[in-house]
């Protein structure tokens, strides 16, 4: 077993974990970051999800480093992707023109940009361990002493000691390993008094569906029909609970109105699946390339059960079934709808088959935090006279997105409702008991419902960045996260660190957004 020592260990190299590492790169702390795949970036890259962002993202609503990432993506396209003069001159270039995002770009380019930003080869203080997962932890007196990790390719074990640990894993994996108290699934209305909470007791399996995304391209001239997937017959006949038609169809649920909605692959005045998350628009390039999109659609949301706190064999079975669902959707389009030219596009995902490197996880374990954000704190209809959500105590960032809950693993229906631009409270990053663990992604102190608006790319980035700076601040000032939270003077000093880094902690309040 290899023994490694650092000041701060970031477990998980997703969007939050990568942002955390970037924040720490400016300091001289020894940092180790682990990542289950060979790509950093999570949602942005290995999960193949074009960034879901707030409507004001081009001018406000994100940290300076996230804006730097966006600018670098556009710069990469201008320098390396043979743009037409008109596309190159567009200051707000949307590379794929997908209408889900102002910056629909390929996952492969996202990974290149993040690697360049992190500049691991030039920074001896940061070690990245890819293909690495946590396996156990040692704790004492409410402190984490060490975390053991394993390389999934070689089975090599490493023992990491650190002063602070950041949980940036997709499922909140450090929480059970360190016996840190956490919540999973939905809370009851009796617990939170949230308008959309259920009257049922808490349900640990009421966790949002996850999706195994894929990059998809279309060549009219070639028959790319794949072999029939093993589970095709099941998925071709499956109709989810509370869904208006079979899952493999062009009919979906309008999540705000609860009505049937026709969502075809092409045409329909641009309201179609292909343009929804399109990442390559050939008209923007001077060379010959095929259009491409990301299959992250209602039709390949996997609601067949959670992968959290279940036997590893069952989790693997469900992951495989989610891949089979995505394969079945492609086969259905090719054989039942006649789009034989469709194929997966591995050139955009860095995988042999064009499927994403890992599943897109929307909801994880959530720490029992010093502060838990409730629906009534951020929902528009609970704050009818406001344009910005009520002020959060000790803000460490901002975000904006709808409460967007996909169908749950136990059959509960979607929830989709408006929010107001909101803040990220410091207390949501800090566990109630464990002293040197910080939540650094979607595992913060939110409920099942508010997870639906705190889980998106720029918000997760902000969470990871702020968690990393909190650890660095505590090491520099010989303080603890709990002390920073309880001491106004310490917090003001820490918030100055955030401001100097370009992290916004308040939305503009003197004009309507």
Strand and helix map with partners:
Layout: E1 2-5, E2 8-11, H1 15-24, E3 31-34, H2 64-80, H3 85-88, H4 107-118, E4 126-129, E5 132-140, E6 143-151, E7 157-161, E8 164-167, H5 174-177, E9 182-183, H6 189-192, E10 210-211, E11 215-218, H7 232-236, E12 251-254, E13 259-262, H8 273-276, E14 278-280, E15 292-294, E16 301-302, H9 312-335, E17 342-344, H10 346-349, E18 366-367, H11 375-378, E19 395-399, E20 403-405, E21 415-417, E22 422-425, E23 437-439, H12 451-454, H13 457-477, H14 481-486, H15 488-501
Parallel strand pairs: 1-7, 2-3, 2-8, 3-4, 8-23
Antiparallel strand pairs: 5-6, 6-7, 9-18, 10-16, 11-15, 11-17, 12-13, 14-15, 19-22, 20-21
Q: Quick one: how many beta strands?
A: 23
Low-confidence segments, given as residue ranges, are none
Number of helices: 15
Estimate the strand proportion.
15-25%
User: Span between N and C termini?
Assistant: 54 Å
Radius of gyration: 22 Å
**Mean pLDDT level:** 96
Output the structural class.
alpha/beta
Strand order of the largest sheet: 4-3-2-8-23
Write up this protein.
The protein is an alpha/beta fold. 27% of the residues lie in helices and 18% in strands. It contains 15 helices and 23 strands. The chain has helices at residues 15-24, 64-80, 85-88, 107-118, 174-177, 189-192, 232-236, 273-276, 312-335, 346-349, 375-378, 451-454, 457-477, 481-486, 488-501, and strands at residues 2-5, 8-11, 31-34, 126-129, 132-140, 143-151, 157-161, 164-167, 182-183, 210-211, 215-218, 251-254, 259-262, 278-280, 292-294, 301-302, 342-344, 366-367, 395-399, 403-405, 415-417, 422-425, 437-439. It has a five-stranded parallel β-sheet with strand order 4-3-2-8-23, with helices on one face. The protein has a four-stranded mixed β-sheet with strand order 1-7-6-5, with no helix packed on it. The protein has a four-stranded antiparallel β-sheet with strand order 14-15-11-17. Strand 2, helix 1 and strand 3 form a beta-alpha-beta unit. Helix 2 (64-80) crosses helix 4 (107-118). The longest helix is centred in the middle third of the chain and has 24 residues, at 312-335. The radius of gyration is 22 Å and the shape is globular. The termini are far apart. The mean pLDDT is 96.
């Amino acid at each position: 077993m290899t023994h490694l020592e650092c000041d701060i260990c970031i477990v998980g190299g997703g969007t939050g974990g990568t942002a955390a590492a970037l924040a720490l790169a400016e300091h001289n702390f020894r940092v180790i970051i682990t990542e289950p795949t060979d790509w950093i970036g999570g949602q942005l890259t290995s999960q193949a999800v074009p960034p879901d962002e707030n409507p004001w993202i081009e001018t406000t609503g994100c940290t300076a480093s996230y804006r730097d990432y966006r600018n670098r993506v556009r710069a990469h396209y201008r320098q390396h992707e043979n743009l037409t003069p008109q596309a190159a001159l567009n200051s707000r270039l949307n590379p794929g023109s997908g209408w889900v995002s102002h910056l629909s770009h390929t996952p492969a380019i996202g990974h290149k940009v993040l690697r360049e930003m992190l500049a691991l080869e030039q920074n001896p203080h940061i070690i990245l361990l890819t293909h690495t997962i946590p396996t156990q932890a040692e704790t004492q007196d409410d402190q984490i002493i060490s975390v053991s990790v394993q390389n999934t390719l070689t089975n090599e074990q490493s023992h990491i000691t650190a002063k602070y640990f950041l949980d940036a894993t997709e499922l909140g994996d450090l929480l059970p390993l360190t016996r840190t108290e956490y919540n999973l699934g939905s809370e009851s209305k009796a617990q939170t008094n949230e308008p959309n909470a259920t009257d049922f007791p808490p349900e640990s399996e009421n966790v949002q569906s996850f999706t195994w995304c894929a990059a998809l391209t279309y060549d009219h001239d070639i028959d790319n029909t794949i072999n029939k997937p093993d589970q095709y017959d099941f998925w071709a006949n499956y109709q989810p609970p509370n869904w208006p038609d079979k899952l493999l169809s062009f009919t979906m649920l309008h999540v705000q109105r609860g009505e049937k909605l026709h969502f075809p692959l092409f045409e329909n005045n641009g309201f179609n699946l292909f343009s929804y998350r399109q990442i390559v628009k050939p008209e923007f390039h001077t060379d010959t390339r095929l259009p491409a999109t990301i299959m992250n659609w209602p039709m390949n949301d996997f609601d067949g059960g959670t992968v959290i706190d279940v036997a590893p064999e069952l989790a693997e079975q469900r992951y495989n079934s989610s891949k089979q669902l995505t394969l079945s959707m492609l086969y259905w389009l090719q054989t039942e709808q006649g789009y034989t030219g469709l194929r997966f596009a591995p050139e955009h995902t860095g995988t042999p088959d064009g499927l994403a490197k890992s599943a897109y996880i929307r909801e994880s374990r959530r720490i029992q935090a010093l502060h838990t954000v409730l629906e009534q704190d951020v929902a528009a209809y609970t704050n009818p006279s406001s344009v910005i959500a009520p002020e959060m105590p000790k803000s460490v960032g901002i975000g904006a997105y709808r409460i967007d809950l996909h169908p749950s693993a136990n059959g509960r229906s979607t929830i989709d409702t408006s929010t107001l631009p909101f803040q990220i409270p410091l207390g949501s990053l800090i566990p109630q008991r464990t002293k040197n663990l910080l939540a650094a992604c979607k595992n913060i102190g939110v409920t099942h419902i508010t997870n639906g608006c705190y889980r998106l790319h720029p918000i997760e980035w902000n969470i990871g960045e702020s968690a990393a700076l909190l650890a660095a601040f505590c090491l520099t000032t010989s303080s603890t996260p709990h002390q920073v939270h309880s001491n106004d003077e310490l917090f003001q000093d820490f918030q100055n660190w955030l401001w100097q880094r370009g992290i916004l902690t308040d939305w503009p309040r003197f004009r309507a957004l």
